Amino acid sequence: MSKGSQERSPSYQRSFSQNDAGTSDDMDKSVELTSSTSKNEDAANEVQNSAMGTRATDSARVTKFTKELSGQMVILERLRELAWSGVPPYMRPNVWRLLLGYAPPNSDRREGVLRRKRLEYLDCVAQFYDIPDTERSADEINMLRQIAVDCPRTVPDVPFFQQAQVQKSLERILYTWAIRHPASGYVQGINDLVTPFLVVFLSEYLEGSIDSWSISDMSAGKISNIEADCYWCLSKLLDGMQDHYTFAQPGIQRLVFKLKELVRRIDEPVSRHMEDQGLEYLQFAFRWFNCLLIREIPFHLVTRLWDTYLAEGDALPDFLVYIFASFLLTWSDELQKLDFQEMVMFLQHLPTQNWTHQELETVLSRAYIWHSMFNSSPSHLAS
Length: 383
Description:
Number of domains: 2
Strand content: under 5%
Radius of gyration: 21 Å
Structural class: mainly alpha
Number of helices: 19
Helix content: 55-70%
Largest sheet: none
Protein backbone atom coordinates (compact mmCIF):
# COMPACT_ATOMS: atom_id res chain seq x y z
CA MET A 1 0.00 0.00 0.00
CA SER A 2 1.28 3.45 -0.84
CA LYS A 3 2.28 5.97 1.77
CA GLY A 4 -0.57 8.23 0.69
CA SER A 5 -3.23 5.59 1.15
CA GLN A 6 -2.09 4.78 4.69
CA GLU A 7 -2.78 8.35 5.72
CA ARG A 8 -6.38 8.28 4.58
CA SER A 9 -9.39 7.30 6.61
CA PRO A 10 -9.88 3.51 6.66
CA SER A 11 -13.25 3.73 4.95
CA TYR A 12 -11.78 5.47 1.95
CA GLN A 13 -10.91 2.96 -0.76
CA ARG A 14 -8.91 4.94 -3.31
CA SER A 15 -5.17 4.46 -3.25
CA PHE A 16 -2.56 6.29 -5.23
CA SER A 17 0.81 4.72 -5.80
CA GLN A 18 3.59 7.24 -5.68
CA ASN A 19 5.66 5.01 -7.95
CA ASP A 20 3.04 5.31 -10.68
CA ALA A 21 2.66 9.02 -10.35
CA GLY A 22 5.88 10.38 -11.67
CA THR A 23 9.04 10.71 -9.64
CA SER A 24 8.68 9.52 -6.08
CA ASP A 25 10.51 12.61 -4.86
CA ASP A 26 7.74 14.84 -6.14
CA MET A 27 5.10 12.60 -4.66
CA ASP A 28 6.92 12.44 -1.34
CA LYS A 29 6.90 16.21 -1.17
CA SER A 30 3.15 16.20 -1.75
CA VAL A 31 2.49 13.53 0.84
CA GLU A 32 4.72 15.19 3.43
CA LEU A 33 2.77 18.35 2.80
CA THR A 34 -0.53 16.71 3.60
CA SER A 35 0.70 15.48 6.96
CA SER A 36 2.98 18.29 8.06
CA THR A 37 1.09 21.47 7.25
CA SER A 38 -2.40 22.84 7.39
CA LYS A 39 -1.61 25.79 5.15
CA ASN A 40 -3.77 25.30 2.08
CA GLU A 41 -1.81 27.86 0.09
CA ASP A 42 1.35 25.83 0.47
CA ALA A 43 -0.42 22.71 -0.77
CA ALA A 44 -1.87 24.53 -3.74
CA ASN A 45 1.52 25.99 -4.68
CA GLU A 46 3.31 22.71 -4.17
CA VAL A 47 0.93 20.82 -6.39
CA GLN A 48 1.66 23.13 -9.32
CA ASN A 49 5.10 21.52 -9.44
CA SER A 50 3.97 18.01 -8.62
CA ALA A 51 4.40 15.24 -11.16
CA MET A 52 1.49 13.27 -9.75
CA GLY A 53 -0.36 13.23 -13.02
CA THR A 54 2.34 11.78 -15.21
CA ARG A 55 0.99 11.00 -18.67
CA ALA A 56 -0.64 7.61 -19.00
CA THR A 57 1.55 6.69 -21.97
CA ASP A 58 4.74 6.45 -19.88
CA SER A 59 6.28 3.05 -20.72
CA ALA A 60 6.77 2.01 -17.08
CA ARG A 61 3.08 2.62 -16.43
CA VAL A 62 2.08 0.71 -19.54
CA THR A 63 4.13 -2.23 -18.27
CA LYS A 64 2.36 -2.10 -14.90
CA PHE A 65 -1.08 -2.00 -16.54
CA THR A 66 -0.12 -4.90 -18.80
CA LYS A 67 0.97 -6.92 -15.78
CA GLU A 68 -2.24 -6.19 -13.85
CA LEU A 69 -4.47 -7.03 -16.82
CA SER A 70 -2.68 -10.18 -17.97
CA GLY A 71 -3.30 -12.34 -14.90
CA GLN A 72 -6.18 -14.76 -14.60
CA MET A 73 -7.63 -12.65 -11.78
CA VAL A 74 -7.36 -8.85 -11.89
CA ILE A 75 -6.77 -7.29 -8.45
CA LEU A 76 -9.21 -4.39 -8.71
CA GLU A 77 -7.66 -2.37 -5.89
CA ARG A 78 -4.31 -2.33 -7.70
CA LEU A 79 -6.02 -1.48 -10.98
CA ARG A 80 -7.81 1.45 -9.31
CA GLU A 81 -4.52 2.68 -7.93
CA LEU A 82 -2.94 2.66 -11.39
CA ALA A 83 -5.99 4.05 -13.22
CA TRP A 84 -6.34 7.04 -10.90
CA SER A 85 -3.57 8.93 -12.67
CA GLY A 86 -4.61 7.96 -16.19
CA VAL A 87 -5.12 4.87 -18.35
CA PRO A 88 -3.28 4.30 -21.65
CA PRO A 89 -5.97 5.02 -24.28
CA TYR A 90 -5.89 1.61 -25.97
CA MET A 91 -6.36 -0.12 -22.59
CA ARG A 92 -9.25 2.10 -21.53
CA PRO A 93 -12.15 -0.06 -22.78
CA ASN A 94 -11.01 -3.11 -20.79
CA VAL A 95 -9.98 -1.11 -17.73
CA TRP A 96 -13.25 0.82 -17.57
CA ARG A 97 -15.35 -2.36 -17.89
CA LEU A 98 -13.38 -3.86 -15.00
CA LEU A 99 -13.43 -0.76 -12.77
CA LEU A 100 -17.21 -0.48 -13.10
CA GLY A 101 -17.76 -4.14 -12.28
CA TYR A 102 -19.35 -4.80 -15.68
CA ALA A 103 -16.63 -7.23 -16.76
CA PRO A 104 -15.66 -9.77 -14.07
CA PRO A 105 -12.06 -9.73 -12.74
CA ASN A 106 -11.75 -13.46 -13.56
CA SER A 107 -10.51 -13.64 -17.15
CA ASP A 108 -12.03 -17.10 -17.71
CA ARG A 109 -15.53 -15.74 -17.13
CA ARG A 110 -15.16 -12.40 -18.90
CA GLU A 111 -16.07 -13.29 -22.46
CA GLY A 112 -19.15 -15.30 -21.41
CA VAL A 113 -20.44 -12.54 -19.11
CA LEU A 114 -20.03 -9.85 -21.77
CA ARG A 115 -21.78 -12.01 -24.38
CA ARG A 116 -24.70 -12.62 -22.04
CA LYS A 117 -25.03 -8.95 -21.00
CA ARG A 118 -24.92 -7.82 -24.64
CA LEU A 119 -27.72 -10.23 -25.54
CA GLU A 120 -29.70 -8.99 -22.53
CA TYR A 121 -29.37 -5.41 -23.79
CA LEU A 122 -30.60 -6.51 -27.25
CA ASP A 123 -33.64 -8.09 -25.61
CA CYS A 124 -34.36 -4.88 -23.70
CA VAL A 125 -34.16 -2.79 -26.87
CA ALA A 126 -36.55 -5.15 -28.64
CA GLN A 127 -38.93 -5.12 -25.69
CA PHE A 128 -38.96 -1.39 -24.88
CA TYR A 129 -37.58 0.63 -27.79
CA ASP A 130 -38.43 -1.23 -31.02
CA ILE A 131 -42.18 -1.01 -30.46
CA PRO A 132 -44.87 1.28 -31.88
CA ASP A 133 -45.95 4.31 -29.83
CA THR A 134 -49.38 2.71 -29.47
CA GLU A 135 -47.77 0.29 -27.00
CA ARG A 136 -46.23 3.08 -24.90
CA SER A 137 -47.85 5.07 -22.09
CA ALA A 138 -48.22 8.84 -22.46
CA ASP A 139 -45.31 9.33 -20.04
CA GLU A 140 -43.11 7.00 -22.07
CA ILE A 141 -43.93 8.84 -25.31
CA ASN A 142 -43.07 12.18 -23.65
CA MET A 143 -39.83 10.77 -22.29
CA LEU A 144 -38.80 9.42 -25.71
CA ARG A 145 -39.58 12.82 -27.27
CA GLN A 146 -37.45 14.61 -24.68
CA ILE A 147 -34.54 12.23 -25.33
CA ALA A 148 -34.94 12.78 -29.11
CA VAL A 149 -34.73 16.55 -28.51
CA ASP A 150 -31.67 16.27 -26.25
CA CYS A 151 -29.57 13.90 -28.39
CA PRO A 152 -28.75 16.53 -31.08
CA ARG A 153 -27.75 18.94 -28.29
CA THR A 154 -25.23 16.50 -26.83
CA VAL A 155 -21.61 17.74 -27.05
CA PRO A 156 -22.62 20.11 -29.90
CA ASP A 157 -19.06 21.26 -30.60
CA VAL A 158 -17.89 17.74 -31.56
CA PRO A 159 -19.15 16.96 -35.11
CA PHE A 160 -19.04 13.19 -34.50
CA PHE A 161 -22.03 13.47 -32.17
CA GLN A 162 -24.05 15.22 -34.89
CA GLN A 163 -24.13 12.07 -37.03
CA ALA A 164 -27.67 10.71 -37.24
CA GLN A 165 -26.63 7.13 -36.44
CA VAL A 166 -24.69 8.25 -33.37
CA GLN A 167 -27.75 10.12 -32.10
CA LYS A 168 -29.88 7.04 -32.75
CA SER A 169 -27.50 4.95 -30.62
CA LEU A 170 -27.64 7.56 -27.84
CA GLU A 171 -31.43 7.54 -28.03
CA ARG A 172 -31.66 3.75 -27.74
CA ILE A 173 -29.25 3.61 -24.79
CA LEU A 174 -30.95 6.46 -22.91
CA TYR A 175 -34.52 5.33 -23.46
CA THR A 176 -33.75 1.73 -22.51
CA TRP A 177 -31.92 2.93 -19.38
CA ALA A 178 -34.80 5.24 -18.41
CA ILE A 179 -37.45 2.52 -18.80
CA ARG A 180 -35.37 0.12 -16.72
CA HIS A 181 -34.79 2.77 -14.00
CA PRO A 182 -38.26 4.17 -13.26
CA ALA A 183 -37.21 5.74 -9.92
CA SER A 184 -35.52 8.52 -11.86
CA GLY A 185 -36.49 7.98 -15.48
CA TYR A 186 -34.70 10.18 -17.98
CA VAL A 187 -33.20 13.39 -16.58
CA GLN A 188 -31.53 15.98 -18.80
CA GLY A 189 -27.78 15.69 -18.34
CA ILE A 190 -27.71 11.89 -18.40
CA ASN A 191 -27.33 12.20 -22.18
CA ASP A 192 -23.89 13.78 -21.57
CA LEU A 193 -22.85 10.90 -19.32
CA VAL A 194 -23.15 8.34 -22.13
CA THR A 195 -20.64 10.17 -24.37
CA PRO A 196 -17.33 9.17 -22.70
CA PHE A 197 -18.42 5.52 -22.79
CA LEU A 198 -19.45 5.77 -26.44
CA VAL A 199 -16.08 7.23 -27.47
CA VAL A 200 -14.04 4.75 -25.42
CA PHE A 201 -15.89 1.65 -26.61
CA LEU A 202 -15.89 2.86 -30.24
CA SER A 203 -12.12 3.33 -29.99
CA GLU A 204 -11.78 -0.47 -30.07
CA TYR A 205 -13.10 -0.41 -33.66
CA LEU A 206 -12.19 3.02 -35.05
CA GLU A 207 -8.72 4.52 -35.38
CA GLY A 208 -7.40 8.05 -35.54
CA SER A 209 -9.03 11.21 -34.28
CA ILE A 210 -12.70 11.32 -33.32
CA ASP A 211 -12.99 14.12 -35.92
CA SER A 212 -12.58 11.52 -38.66
CA TRP A 213 -14.87 8.87 -37.18
CA SER A 214 -18.00 7.53 -38.82
CA ILE A 215 -20.10 4.56 -37.76
CA SER A 216 -21.98 4.30 -41.06
CA ASP A 217 -19.81 1.37 -42.21
CA MET A 218 -19.97 -0.55 -38.95
CA SER A 219 -22.05 -3.72 -38.74
CA ALA A 220 -25.26 -3.72 -36.72
CA GLY A 221 -23.70 -6.37 -34.44
CA LYS A 222 -20.71 -4.20 -33.54
CA ILE A 223 -22.89 -1.15 -32.93
CA SER A 224 -25.17 -3.22 -30.73
CA ASN A 225 -22.20 -4.49 -28.66
CA ILE A 226 -20.90 -0.95 -28.20
CA GLU A 227 -24.35 0.30 -27.17
CA ALA A 228 -24.68 -2.59 -24.71
CA ASP A 229 -21.33 -1.78 -23.10
CA CYS A 230 -22.37 1.90 -22.83
CA TYR A 231 -25.74 0.93 -21.35
CA TRP A 232 -24.33 -1.37 -18.68
CA CYS A 233 -21.46 0.95 -17.76
CA LEU A 234 -23.85 3.92 -17.49
CA SER A 235 -26.06 1.76 -15.26
CA LYS A 236 -23.12 0.84 -13.02
CA LEU A 237 -21.97 4.46 -12.78
CA LEU A 238 -25.43 5.77 -11.89
CA ASP A 239 -26.12 2.96 -9.40
CA GLY A 240 -23.55 4.70 -7.20
CA MET A 241 -25.34 8.06 -7.37
CA GLN A 242 -29.02 7.23 -7.75
CA ASP A 243 -30.28 10.17 -5.70
CA HIS A 244 -28.53 12.58 -8.10
CA TYR A 245 -31.29 11.95 -10.63
CA THR A 246 -34.42 11.16 -8.63
CA PHE A 247 -37.11 13.82 -8.01
CA ALA A 248 -35.58 17.20 -6.98
CA GLN A 249 -32.11 15.58 -7.32
CA PRO A 250 -31.35 15.59 -3.57
CA GLY A 251 -27.92 13.98 -4.04
CA ILE A 252 -26.73 16.90 -6.13
CA GLN A 253 -28.26 19.43 -3.74
CA ARG A 254 -26.31 17.82 -0.88
CA LEU A 255 -23.00 17.86 -2.78
CA VAL A 256 -23.46 21.49 -3.84
CA PHE A 257 -23.82 22.38 -0.15
CA LYS A 258 -20.64 20.43 0.69
CA LEU A 259 -18.80 22.21 -2.13
CA LYS A 260 -19.75 25.59 -0.67
CA GLU A 261 -18.51 24.53 2.79
CA LEU A 262 -15.24 23.16 1.39
CA VAL A 263 -14.50 26.32 -0.61
CA ARG A 264 -15.13 28.38 2.53
CA ARG A 265 -12.60 26.21 4.38
CA ILE A 266 -9.94 26.36 1.65
CA ASP A 267 -10.27 29.91 0.29
CA GLU A 268 -12.12 32.19 2.66
CA PRO A 269 -11.62 35.42 0.61
CA VAL A 270 -13.26 34.06 -2.55
CA SER A 271 -15.98 32.39 -0.51
CA ARG A 272 -16.78 35.67 1.24
CA HIS A 273 -16.74 37.61 -2.03
CA MET A 274 -19.20 35.18 -3.66
CA GLU A 275 -21.45 35.43 -0.61
CA ASP A 276 -21.25 39.24 -0.52
CA GLN A 277 -22.29 39.33 -4.18
CA GLY A 278 -25.23 37.01 -3.49
CA LEU A 279 -23.99 34.24 -5.78
CA GLU A 280 -25.59 30.87 -5.03
CA TYR A 281 -23.56 27.76 -5.80
CA LEU A 282 -26.62 26.10 -7.34
CA GLN A 283 -26.46 28.74 -10.10
CA PHE A 284 -23.31 27.21 -11.55
CA ALA A 285 -22.35 24.02 -9.69
CA PHE A 286 -25.62 22.17 -10.26
CA ARG A 287 -24.66 21.67 -13.91
CA TRP A 288 -21.16 20.55 -12.88
CA PHE A 289 -22.54 17.73 -10.74
CA ASN A 290 -25.36 16.94 -13.15
CA CYS A 291 -23.03 16.47 -16.16
CA LEU A 292 -19.81 15.65 -14.26
CA LEU A 293 -17.93 18.60 -15.85
CA ILE A 294 -18.38 17.28 -19.41
CA ARG A 295 -19.75 20.65 -20.52
CA GLU A 296 -17.02 22.63 -18.76
CA ILE A 297 -13.81 21.24 -20.28
CA PRO A 298 -12.68 20.38 -23.84
CA PHE A 299 -14.09 17.01 -24.81
CA HIS A 300 -10.65 15.53 -25.60
CA LEU A 301 -9.82 15.78 -21.85
CA VAL A 302 -13.01 14.11 -20.62
CA THR A 303 -11.85 10.49 -20.85
CA ARG A 304 -8.72 11.31 -18.83
CA LEU A 305 -10.88 12.93 -16.14
CA TRP A 306 -13.13 9.87 -16.15
CA ASP A 307 -10.17 7.55 -15.51
CA THR A 308 -10.00 9.20 -12.09
CA TYR A 309 -13.78 9.18 -11.63
CA LEU A 310 -14.03 5.44 -12.28
CA ALA A 311 -10.95 4.67 -10.18
CA GLU A 312 -12.76 6.31 -7.25
CA GLY A 313 -15.51 3.69 -7.34
CA ASP A 314 -18.12 4.12 -4.60
CA ALA A 315 -16.21 7.09 -3.17
CA LEU A 316 -16.76 9.14 -6.34
CA PRO A 317 -19.65 11.39 -5.20
CA ASP A 318 -17.68 12.67 -2.19
CA PHE A 319 -14.47 13.07 -4.18
CA LEU A 320 -16.31 15.11 -6.84
CA VAL A 321 -16.65 17.84 -4.21
CA TYR A 322 -12.84 18.09 -3.99
CA ILE A 323 -12.35 18.02 -7.78
CA PHE A 324 -14.96 20.73 -8.28
CA ALA A 325 -13.51 22.90 -5.48
CA SER A 326 -10.11 22.61 -7.15
CA PHE A 327 -11.68 23.40 -10.54
CA LEU A 328 -13.49 26.48 -9.19
CA LEU A 329 -10.48 27.82 -7.31
CA THR A 330 -8.38 27.71 -10.49
CA TRP A 331 -9.94 31.16 -11.00
CA SER A 332 -9.88 32.40 -7.40
CA ASP A 333 -8.09 35.67 -8.25
CA GLU A 334 -10.31 36.45 -11.24
CA LEU A 335 -13.54 35.73 -9.35
CA GLN A 336 -12.69 38.20 -6.59
CA LYS A 337 -12.61 41.03 -9.14
CA LEU A 338 -16.07 40.31 -10.58
CA ASP A 339 -19.52 41.46 -9.51
CA PHE A 340 -22.55 39.15 -9.36
CA GLN A 341 -23.55 39.38 -13.02
CA GLU A 342 -19.96 39.05 -14.26
CA MET A 343 -19.39 36.01 -12.03
CA VAL A 344 -22.49 34.24 -13.32
CA MET A 345 -21.40 34.83 -16.92
CA PHE A 346 -17.81 33.81 -16.20
CA LEU A 347 -18.75 30.59 -14.40
CA GLN A 348 -21.17 29.57 -17.13
CA HIS A 349 -18.54 30.12 -19.87
CA LEU A 350 -15.24 29.22 -18.22
CA PRO A 351 -12.06 29.87 -20.26
CA THR A 352 -11.05 26.22 -20.56
CA GLN A 353 -11.16 25.90 -24.35
CA ASN A 354 -7.36 25.87 -24.62
CA TRP A 355 -6.77 23.55 -21.68
CA THR A 356 -4.31 20.69 -22.08
CA HIS A 357 -3.75 17.62 -19.91
CA GLN A 358 -1.47 19.74 -17.74
CA GLU A 359 -4.26 21.98 -16.41
CA LEU A 360 -6.47 18.98 -15.75
CA GLU A 361 -3.69 17.14 -13.89
CA THR A 362 -3.18 20.23 -11.72
CA VAL A 363 -6.89 20.25 -10.80
CA LEU A 364 -6.81 16.53 -9.92
CA SER A 365 -3.55 16.73 -7.96
CA ARG A 366 -4.81 19.65 -5.90
CA ALA A 367 -8.07 17.78 -5.22
CA TYR A 368 -6.07 14.76 -4.08
CA ILE A 369 -4.02 16.82 -1.64
CA TRP A 370 -7.05 18.65 -0.23
CA HIS A 371 -8.85 15.35 0.23
CA SER A 372 -5.86 13.99 2.15
CA MET A 373 -5.81 17.09 4.33
CA PHE A 374 -9.50 17.59 5.04
CA ASN A 375 -11.35 14.32 4.63
CA SER A 376 -10.11 12.90 7.93
CA SER A 377 -11.73 15.87 9.71
CA PRO A 378 -15.00 16.24 7.82
CA SER A 379 -16.87 18.20 10.50
CA HIS A 380 -16.65 21.27 8.26
CA LEU A 381 -18.71 19.39 5.70
CA ALA A 382 -21.54 18.39 8.04
CA SER A 383 -24.89 18.81 6.36
